[in-house]
Each structure stands twice: as structure tokens, then as C-alpha cells.
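Page 37, top half.
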Amino acid sequence: MIYLYVKTHQTTGLKYLGKTVSKNPHAYKGSGIVWKAHCKKYGYHYDTEIIFQSDNKDEIREKGIHYSQLWNVVESKEWANLKQEECDGGYCANSFTPEANAKRSAKLKGRVITLEHRKKLSEANKGKNWLSVEARKVAADKIRGRKRPQEVTNRAVQTRLKNLVRKEKPIKLPKPVIICPHCGKQGKHTGNMLKYHFDNCEIVVGPRYRKCDQPRRLADKTKKPTSWIITSPNNIQYTVTNMRQFCREHNLNNGSISDVAAGYRKQHKGWTAIAQYDDTYS
């Protein structure tokens, strides 16, 4: 819907004739150069009167020319219009037609922005927060209700569909089963098959150390060691009665040294240990 309106400033009484496609024409501030400068100076305090509305651009143009000539909005000092309202300024329903695009392109050809103009634009935009909630709301109100040509919509849909097409993932083939030529063990080409078979097979390098295969030295679980003889990597022997304190002082793990003393491990960080028992202690 296109609205033809008249805005009257509450302080100065200056009037402005214009049109808008905004859903809320009363909140629309107007786009005239003189009108915007006037409101910027005296404040945006105005009354809005809708004098005609239609979804036909030709009807709006006809009414705009009629009221412009009736009230003499161009020459009268009571109005802020620089030209009669012909529905050719700003956004209209047909603003994106090839004719409109060619007209805008012809106006912009050869345009040169001087350093003075750039400086004025920089000073005008200083201090503005374009990411604030108010700024985003104003920007959204300006473009709300616009209708794009069907060609632009179809092009955007095709671009989105093209971006949404997922690439086909390659099919993951199962890893082949391999067989150790020495012991005949079958398994996948990973993990323990590579670690303990082929060149590292027990048949080639001999039996490997297993904690579960080591016999427990203590036949009677009720017996506890009274002391330990611990040998350092430098062949220094210690007779220890407090295993926890000794491990803290030498940065050792108490459980690992206990496993070495019990026969579950050969060494811990190069340290070896032998547990001593008192037959009278149980």
C-alpha cells in the first residue's frame, strides 16, 4: 500500500507533501531535503494526515500532482517541497525495474566524491552507533514492506540452494584383515596386531613380559612385609621400613614399587625392590 500524506510541524507550522510505502506512515519522518533539515533544527514534532492511499502507483502519481498544483507546494513558503509530488523519488513499487535501474545508473555515472565531501560524511557519522538497538530498528523500519522483483528473489533462492547442497562423503571401506606369518593370529591392520606381531611376534623376539603371568611370591596373603631393600639405578641400596615416606622423598610411586617388591614388575624408573618378611609377624 502506498500512502500520500501531509506532515505539519507543530512548532513552526511548515507543511510537507509526500508519499511512503511504510506500514506505519505516521512514524515515517519524511524524505524531503528541506523538511529533514527543518526537523533536525526544530525537532521531529509533527502531525501526519493521510489524504490518499492506494496500491496503484499511477493513481498515487495522479493525486500527488493534483494536490501539488492545488496547494502550490513548490512556490509557497508554507510548504517544504522543492518539486511537485510525482511518486518518482525514494522507493516505489517499481523501483527495481530495468528502466529505474538505468535511470539511477545514468545519474551516478561520472560522479566524483571530493575530499571535502568525504570529510563532511566522516564528521556527520562520528559518534553514531550503527549497531545499537535503536539504529537497527530505524534501518528495519525503512526497508519493511518492500517487495523485490521476482528475478532477484529467484536468484537468491538458487544461491541458497546451491550453498545447501552437501558434498557426498566418500564411502569408508573396512580395513582388510591381516595374518601374522609367524603365529597365524588374525586381526585388523592396527592396534596390538602391529605392536605384538609380525617382527615383534613372540616367536621371533621371545615371550614378552606380562604382569598377569608373573607368579605371586606371597603364598600367604595374611603376611605383610616388615621392610624393603630398595636399590636405586646407581646401585645404592636402602633399607626402608616406611614405603610411603621413602617414595615421597625420592619421587616414586608407592603402588609401582610395591608391585616390583611383589614380583609383578621388574623395575620402576630403574629402581628395584625386595620385600623382607618376619615369620613371627602375621
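Page 37, bottom half:
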Amino acid sequence: MSQLECLTLVSFFAFIGIGNLSSSSPESRNVAQRGRSNIKFRAPEETSVVIALLALIGFVGILRPNFLQMNNLLNLGASYAITALLAAGLVYLLALGEIDLSFGWILNFSAVIAGLSMISGIPVWISVLIGVLSGAAMGFLNGVLSVVMRLPLIIVTLGTASVYQGTSLISNRSGSVVPPIEITDQFFFRFFGGVIDTPIPFLLVIVILVIILLHLILHKTRFGYRVLAIGSNVEAARLAGIPIKKIKIQVSMLMGGIAGLGGVLFLGFRGAVDPTTGAQVLLPVVAAAIIGGTPLSGGSGTVIGALYGALIVGVIGVGVVFLGIDAVWSTLFTGLVIIIAIGIDQLVRIRRKRT
């Protein structure tokens, strides 16, 4: 059996496990727990995702031992940190029963705004704040349009994505935004760009801290409870007095702010932003959220799982290169994983209804 066939087989069975163990809803797990009240310990819902991640890392590491070098693994984490950050924000929308198609271009436009602000003479940290707030404003616009027009967010963002892309291209004149050396030599770029040596890439540290915060907000606050309640049953949430339109706008704004943060982090990490930045993030981000255990049906979500899902996508992308396989196969694998995850999620929903 060839390496490509082996990787396909391992990926398939790993993600079958992810779907079976991660896609079940909190309600179905509670029913099972009540039926087995004598069982005191229940593994975290991200356990299967971690197992699949370790299986893939181990598989590639057995065939290419240099893949397991700490520097390679840390670089892998840093390279897919922004994907994990965006996936964590997308979990909120999926839990709400919505999806955003514009976050890649919000990231791009936010980075362009921050970069142009720096070039115009605005201090770096103020420009960073401007970039994040610009992303939040674009997300706010998405939410308002969705509520006012009474359309699903996916339809609205199908149009706003082109608007943000076009505005970004007009702003940067269809070229790259490259701050001069006197700007990129400052602390922000040196720290996030890895010029200052740290045991763990600082970009990865920041993203992990933000993901932990988002996890706590989703599962420990009233806002998070309302998001999950709306995704579980919109009508019941309305009867309970939850302001559905307000929450929808707030979640859209949160997604925009996260994309804006991703944009300025990308600018700090790469030191520049080009017209195609953000164009290819939709597939890996959606894949990371779904693989991480957040179902498309709404009502539940795991932010920590999105981090592991992003790392799985990263291992697939980098692993095929280490195995000597053409890099274009990674896109095929990612697409297949999404299809498998969606299919399993649908089967879980049907089984849940029958139960």
C-alpha cells in the first residue's frame, strides 16, 4: 500500500472516530449519563479529536521521524494559529445556527487598514487597534444587514465578502501593503515575526489565550448560554425572552473582531499583506470547526476542539509534503474530511430524532 493510500485510510478512520464521539449533542450525552448514573467519569468532548490528532502526528512521524522535531511542531502550530483563531470564532456562529463567508476578506481588509495606518504615521499599537475595530465594524454590518433584511447570514455575507474584497483592493491599489523597515523593526513586528527568540512562538501563545477566553465565554456566561439556546431552539429562546436579533448582531460583531485580530496578527507575523491574503482561509477554517466537534445543526460547540481541528488540518497540509506527496492533495483530503464530518453529523441528527 502506498503512503498516499495509507494516509487516506488513517485519515478516514480517524475522522470517523471524531464524528462518532464529538458530534453528539449535550442533550444526548446527558441522557446517556442518566442511564449510566454509576459512571462517575466522563471524558471531555474533545478527547476523540485529540486522539485523531495524535494518531496523524504519530503516523507521519513514523514514516518521517524528522517531522516530530519540536521546531517543526511549533512552526506548524504558529502557521495554523490564525486558522485556529478564526475557527474558534466560527464556532459561535455554528452554535447559533449561522455561518459567515466573509471573514477571510474581513481579515484581509483589517490587515490592510492597519498597515496603511502605520504607513501614514499612526503609531503601531494604535494602528493595530484600528485594524481590530475595523473588523468588528464589518462584522457588525453583517449582523445588522442579516437582521434588517431577515436573511440568513450566509446569504448576506456572500455579498459583503465581495464588498470587503473590492474595497480592500481599492484601498491598496491591488498591490501589497508593506510597512517600511523603520516600522517593521519595532517591537510588535519583531515579537510576532519571531525575530525575538521565545521558547514558544508568541503568536501561538496569544491565540491559545484568546481561545481559552472564548471557551469560557461560550460555556460560563449568560451570553454563551443565550447563543447555545438560540441554536438549539429559536422559538423556545424567543419565548424565554432572549433577544435573538441582538445576540445575532453581537455574534457577527464578535466574528468580525476575531477576523480583525487575525488580520493584524497576520500582518505582524508576515510583515506585509498582499491582495490574496485571506482568500484561501474559508475551507481550512470551516474544516477545523467541524472536525473539532461543532455540528452544523447548532445548539452546541467546542472552541477548544476548533484548536485541535486546526492542528489536524495543519498536519494534513504539512504531512503530505513531508511524505513527498504533491501539496495539492492536502486540499482534497480537507474537502473529503468536511464531507465525512457533515455526513456523520446528519446521521447523528437522524439518530437523535429517533431516540
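Margin note: The first helix runs from residue 3 to 22.
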